[in-house]
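PROTEIN–LIGAND DATA SHEET

This sheet pairs a single protein chain with one bound small molecule, flavin-adenine dinucleotide, given as SMILES. Inputs appear in the order they were entered. The predicted three-dimensional arrangement of chain and ligand is reported afterwards as a token string under its own label.
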Amino acid sequence: MTKVAVLGAGINGLACAVRVKEKYPNIHVVIIASEFTPNTTGDGSGGFWYPYLCGITPQDLLCKWGGETYKYLYGLWREGGHDLCLLPMFELYREKRELVTHSWAKDVLGYRILDEKQLSYLSGLYSVKYVSGRTFTSFIAYPPTILAHLHRRFEAANGQTLQYRINSLDDKKLDDYDVVINCLGLGAREVVPDDKVVPIRGQISRVIAPWVTNAVMDEDSGNYILPNVHNCVLGGTHQTNDFNRSIVGEDTDFVLNGCSQLIPGLKNAELITQWAGLRPGRESVRLEAEQRDGKLYIHNYGHGGSGLTLFWGCAADVLEIFDKHLTEGRKQNAKL
Ligand SMILES: Cc1cc2nc3c(=O)[nH]c(=O)nc-3n(C[C@H](O)[C@H](O)[C@H](O)COP(=O)(O)OP(=O)(O)OC[C@H]3O[C@@H](n4cnc5c(N)ncnc54)[C@H](O)[C@@H]3O)c2cc1C
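PREDICTION REPORTED AS:
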């Protein structure tokens, strides 16, 4: 009987564990992780569907993984009760750019490059002169709710969990497993090891601002405003190779002053939390199979600023690799 260990209980580990366990209820699947929700990177994240800081991951893969995740969120939104919102977003530039249409434009609602009239309207709304921009309609999650939902789904399918810190892929804890699905995020840097994985530090604030119902990203200043069901995320920094998880006063000023420049009323919004997290940056998402010492490893890490944007589609590809492995195993057994 095949035994599967999923390493990591972030959004990617949970999605893979759910997809494998729900398709193969008789296969033993355990999630092994040092931290579970609400203490993973995704829990603190903005929760916004938007391909961001994922290096040179090929556009066709962003399209496939992102498109499938967008559709999955669509379904959850229709069900209700998952703390998901569907809202317009504006990606705006202070300097003139020749913006091309993203490969994933056809997979989202209402995608458009903004014309001069629309930009002039938005410049009035956000008190900054914007000269280029895009808009589309996207989903924003309150991340702990979606992570808890996936965790419950996995447990309801009789999936097992184990809190444990893995030292390497040769860790004795993995001896009993034939298939290891590696969703360690930044942890892959040490465990694989893979020095292409680097932290991209992000510091954000959460405020109460229920009148804000659009997402805005000022691509030239780096500030962004992402309202969700419970609060409004103000961002943000993206400092590569910075491992500092503490709040830095200078970054707080950058976030609060920068976002208040866009929407002056935010100055009076109640500040409820601040958080600094480390995105698992990599030149490109690593999603591939590797055979090592008779064991199948399926790597799925390095999602940068897009874990909540790509997770369901990436888990579909992981499942496909796993399906193929089972089919080949059956064929070989039949020959014996
Ligand atoms: C400020 C900020 C804002 C963000 N906003 C967005 C956004 O709006 N939209 C979006 O799509 N993405 C966003 N992201 C990025 C997103 O959070 C990540 O891409 C995503 O969380 C990665 O998920 P993961 O499951 O791969 O890794 P993680 O969530 O980091 O989970 C890794 C798992 O592996 C475990 N682990 C690691 N090392 C070990 C070990 N040695 N042994 C055992 N277990 C281990 C951890 O405990 C954890 O369970 C943001 C990130 C930050 C920091």
